Amino acid sequence: MAGKLGSSSRPLRVAIVGAGPSGFYAAGALLQQKEMHVSIDIFDRLPTPYGLVRYGVAPDHQKIKSVTKVYERTVRDSRVRYFGNVGLGEEISRDDLKSHYDQIIYATGAPADKQLEIPGEELKGSFSATEFVAWYNGHPDFVDRDFDLGVESVAIIGVGNVAMDVTRILAKSYAELATTDIADYALEKLRASRVKQIHVVARRGPAQAKFTNPEIKELGDLAEADVIIKAEDLILDAASAAALESDRTAVRNLETLHELAERGATGKPRQIHFHFLRSPVELSGDATVTAMRLEVNELHPTDTGYIACDGVGRFETLDVGLVFRSIGYRSLPIPGVPFYDKWGIIPNEKGRVTATHRGEALPGEYVVGWAKRGPTGVIGTNKPDAGETVALMLEDVAGLLPVTDEKASPRAILALLQERGVAYFSFEDWLKLEAVEDARGQAEGRPRVKLTSEAAMLAAVRADPSRP
């Protein structure tokens, strides 16, 4: 070996799979530590970096997107390289990474949604919120989705922040959306939308809602939509009232919900209806959704303190032509990488990947973010999560079997990609694409106008899109 692992002559070689927040926070933690020299390559299946920030954060939440400035500083560090348009299990394999890097971090997120598992879920017009969010954000995999916004009534199942984003985008006026970076095709389709009634369905009560207070407050400020909440739906059971004593977020949410309920309808052309203590039990229609059957629930505390709900055998029906479920997310299996299907995560112990759930740790393999802990927290939650994993990585270096110096050379992975004809997207390529999008946006008074196909992205920065 040219030098001790982690020395200036033989830096610790790390591959990070996934260029979203968790991947960048992991890279940042590795750069900030002082124990050893590191050399980091970040891979992403898409040409563009930033993952959920680009394709998940709502287009009208530009302030949240400013976190990319932190990530940009990370990738501009001379110890870091970016390889976009390189998918694990596609252009490269797990074995490729294991032979070229001393350690691997999986930061692949939780891109799949959970199912309702009710009759009629397969009908046309039944979608996950994930699909809709990715569509209006210009994700290349979702540009061809067809959402019928010619219907007048839509249901959104769930009361987390993603559900509130979907509600807000459906309820906003064209003028409110036209100053954002929403995908052009989505902007035009929403401009022609005939949606008037938006039903938000929550299986538990208002005290258990998972949205943050800014998200629910925003609904009260929409130009063309009123929020309709029945006052009786905000009356709390004893267990929920007791739980509020230690939950300031829930207290603020209840205060906002009461304000919105008191305001009621003011004559705006659209209405957002909240339905608490309701569970969808069936979607119906001839090939396409036309109605959703709901069962009324009641709450009861469990021995663990969790406030659960059960149906009481009373039913209601909503006439809706479009349904979006937002009831949770899960990771997807990666070829060759362990996966715990029950929880929808890569099995791990505090970030060390294990062969099976609670099994033996696999040397040199780690996980961060939603792929590690499940879909919990906000973007900033990924920073301490990544720090926990990186601390274990450093602890493990002494017992590692390093890859050969030849394979550890930064030139080796470049040679492999070039040999395979992989048209990888460098960070310099991304900066060119970003400049193109920003210039298009400036001309229209918008933050940016996104290119939404991989071919268009590659063509925008290369004379020959097939050139690796």
Please describe what this structure looks like.
This protein is α/β, with parallel strands linked by helices and 468 residues long. The chain is built from 18 helices and 18 strands. The protein has helices spanning 21-32, 52-55, 62-65, 68-75, 94-100, 129-136, 161-171, 174-177, 184-191, 213-219, 238-243, 248-263, 370-373, 382-396, 405-408, 410-419, 427-444, 454-461, and strands spanning 12-17, 38-43, 80-83, 103-106, 112-113, 126-128, 153-157, 197-201, 225-228, 270-275, 278-284, 291-301, 307-319, 322-325, 329-330, 348-349, 352-354, 361-367. The strands form four sheets. It has a seven-stranded mixed sheet with strand order 3-2-1-4-18-17-16, with helices on both faces. It has a six-stranded parallel sheet with strand order 6-14-7-8-10-9. A three-stranded antiparallel sheet has the order 11-12-13, with no helix packed on it. The longest helix is centred in the last third of the chain and has 18 residues, at 427-444. The relative contact order is 0.17.
Structural class: alpha/beta
User: Average pLDDT value?
Assistant: 95
Stated plainly, the CATH topology of the largest domain is called: FAD/NAD(P)-binding domain
Alpha carbon gyration radius: 24 Å
Helix content: 25-40%
- Share of β-strand residues: 15-25%
CATH homologous superfamily designation of the largest domain: FAD/NAD(P)-binding domain
Overall number of strands: 18
Unreliable spans are 464-468
The biggest beta sheet, please?
7 strands, mixed
Rough outline: globular
Distance between the termini: 31 Å
| CATH architectural label of the largest domain | 3-Layer(bba) Sandwich
What is the domain tally? 2
Widest sheet, order of strands:
3-2-1-4-18-17-16
- Class of the largest domain, according to the CATH hierarchy? Alpha Beta
